[in-house]
Design goal:
five-stranded mixed sheet, 8 helices, three-stranded antiparallel sheet, alpha/beta, globular, 226 residues
Length: 226
């Protein structure tokens, strides 16, 4: 978004909000655009418009490694004969406590696919992490790419099962801001053509380089609220 603002010569102001309130914020005009790994869904399209997809993300389950019989992937646990209380697969969560981010696609997925489980909704990712680590829930659903970063930094956690779902993600706009949406799509096309996009994906996603580069911006054409 900082690159897009520079592309348009606009200053940008970021306003943090609970994830569940993001769609309402842009639909009501409190923000010009929203971007927070927002999956593009038909339900959300009824309230706001989306840019062209800029990435595709999936959802994974994670739990305390000590509670998984055979954790696969990041922080894999040793293969041992599972105790009865250990989690072996997604099916073992049918009657368990599952944490989700309130208002997220994960929220609706859990309610639909785990009707007999206790789906516990939290307002922030940090609240979800605390719930898992403190034992308030048995497992949680969150975005795969973000979990890669979290689990690399926290050896107590591990992934459970395979990806649950994959969705394209995009930037959300008020339905009356179609010019701004078209400008973003033009910007996205430009950075994909000149190599900037590939460089960003390589640095942030593949190599986990989190140092923000300096981005020149004239800031002469107004302000974007994101």
């Amino acid at each position: 978004l900082k690159r897009f603002a520079a592309y348009e010569g606009k200053a940008i102001e970021f306003s943090n909000a609970d994830f569940s309130s993001l769609v309402a914020a842009v639909a009501s005009g409190k923000a010009d655009l929203i971007a927070s790994s927002i999956f593009i869904t038909d339900e959300r399209k009824k309230q706001i418009n989306f840019s062209d997809p800029y990435y595709e993300m999936g959802a994974r389950l994670f739990a305390l490694k000590q509670n998984i019989a055979d954790a696969s992937g990041i922080n894999a646990a040793p293969v041992v004969p599972p105790a009865d209380h250990k989690l072996r697969s997604v099916d073992d969560l049918k009657h368990k406590r599952i944490a989700v981010l309130l208002g997220s696609v994960h929220d609706s997925y859990a309610l639909k696919n785990f009707p007999q489980a206790e789906v516990m909704q939290y307002k922030s990712p940090s609240d979800i992490l605390l719930a898992v680590k403190s034992g308030k829930v048995d497992a949680a659903i969150y975005t795969r790419e973000t979990l890669v970063e979290i689990l690399h930094a926290d050896p107590e956690l591990a992934l459970l099962g395979d990806s649950l779902q994959n969705y394209p993600i995009g930037v959300g706009f008020n339905k009356d801001k179609d010019v701004l949406r078209e400008q973003f799509n033009a910007f996205l096309k430009t950075i994909k053509q000149d190599g900037t996009y590939d460089d960003m994906v390589s640095r942030w996603i593949k190599n986990n380089i989190t140092t923000m580069p300096h981005i020149e911006n004239s800031k002469k054409n107004g302000v974007l609220i994101a």
